[in-house]
Write a structure and sequence with these properties.
Blueprint (H helix, E strand, L loop, with lengths): L1 E2 L2 E3 L2 E3 L6 E6 L4 E7 L3 H16 L1 H4 L3 H17 L1 H12 L3 H21 L14 E9 L2 E5 L5 H15 L2 E5 L6 H13 L6 E3 L4 H10 L5 E5 L2 H12 L4 E5 L5 E4 L5 H13 L11 E5 L3 H14 L18 H16 L3 E4 L18 E4 L16 E7 L2 H9 L3 E2 L1 E5 L3 H10 L4 E4 L14 E2 L2 E2 L12 E9 L11
Parallel strand pairs: 1-5, 7-8, 7-10, 8-9, 10-11, 12-13, 12-18, 13-16, 15-16, 18-19
Antiparallel strand pairs: 2-3, 4-5, 6-22, 11-21, 14-15, 17-20
Helix pairs in contact: 1-8, 3-5, 3-6, 3-7, 4-5, 4-7, 5-6, 10-11
Amino acid sequence: MREVKMYIGGKWVEALSGETFPTYNPATGEEIARVPRAGPEDVDRAVEAARAAMEGPWGTRITPRERARLLWKLASLMRDRFEELLHLEVENSGKAITGVAGELQQAVENFEYFGGLADKIFGRTAPAAPYLFHYTVREPVGVAAQIIPWNYPLMMLSWKLAPALAAGCAVVVKPASATPLTALKMAELIEEAGFPPGVVNIVTGPGTEVGRYLVQHPGVDKVAFTGETSTGREIMKLAADGIKRVSLELGGKSPNIVFEDADLEGAIPGSLWAIFTSGGQSCEARSRILVHESLLDEFVEKFSEKASSLKVGDPMDPSTHIGSLISPSHWERVHSYVRLGVEEGARVVTGGGRPDDPALSRGSFYRPTVLAPVSMEMKVAQEEIFGPVAAIIPFREEEEAIALANKTRYGLAATLWTRDSARAHRVAAAIKAGVVTVNHPFTAFPGTPFGGYKESGFGRELGMEALDLYTEVKSVMILTRPKPVNPWKV
């Protein structure tokens, strides 16, 4: 049993109330740590520390090159502690270690990438008038509140923290209550890297109290959130009174389109990964698989056979494909959707419950599940299940595939499988999604912007565009002629 503390103003502290809450290993159901349960007064401390950092050396004297060196030092420490971070993330999230290793590698690369951008946040000059010299500068937006989800705890932390620090902001991070441990471990590395006190603050506690108060706090200038669309909608309302800058990366119901000319040797394993990686607990999971009717029977048979062969088991085992879902309550949510799909007329081709292995009975494990055939009128085709459940939907023509792909309130990602390059460009242009991949399932790399259309949110992370989320543009115009301006001729 671990006893951990929060990190505020460069110090390790308990909640002022003294209250704590448990966090668990989802694969075993065991309590693994007691975590401080912050209250409003703890958020006040964190925001005050961040504002003091912005008014102190971090905001007034540290150069962009120094920020770059700090980010690179942090990335180096993460590489040194890779195994420690990896095992802690697996233990607290329940996800398969091979997948988490890739996520952690990307997290390291994110800090390296934005370290390289810290001294390349450029302004520009633009003609205003013959007697004026005009230029722009980009300045840090100030104190950023960053609310991190439980599905990719460390990787999502890097998506938000790296560009904010590169831009010169100070931050208050609230990790998900289910998965706070790696964020707190990262605070140790941030301290060791030499970031000044107050630049990064981490508070732990329930989103309904801590997150809500943080979003509304008058000392916060910008809010970044990844999570459910319903929560994102509420954050927009809460941030409105303070006219805070907001970026949201929300839910998805992403399509995976298999055209009649697709290479099934790539499309089937790629489609498996696109939905079942991270146990389907991924905002961009391609959970709607649109298959041309000429391939439908063959695809369903081969895809389901491969899905049933995926290993669900001990997250620490390198041969495991799918670990545990995050919690028993989330397991029940996923299973309720599978039951609903059957009620709506779909067939469970494979999966649909717990693995048979009694060694997994204490965890929240769920077998990869295939529902077919599914129509877009069904709730399992419209609502985000956030679990290892694939809905297979037939189509006839390209135009129908595009219409079905866009027939959702979400617009985060999409994947196409075709040998026709013209079709690939044509369909990619027609789909309303922030990320479109062709003949591969991978959606996110350092340097490539990631974000959604419609109710999947707004703002782009990962790429250079992420710096726009954490900077303000200031326009400066200087009179260059010796004769003073006298507009009214007075």
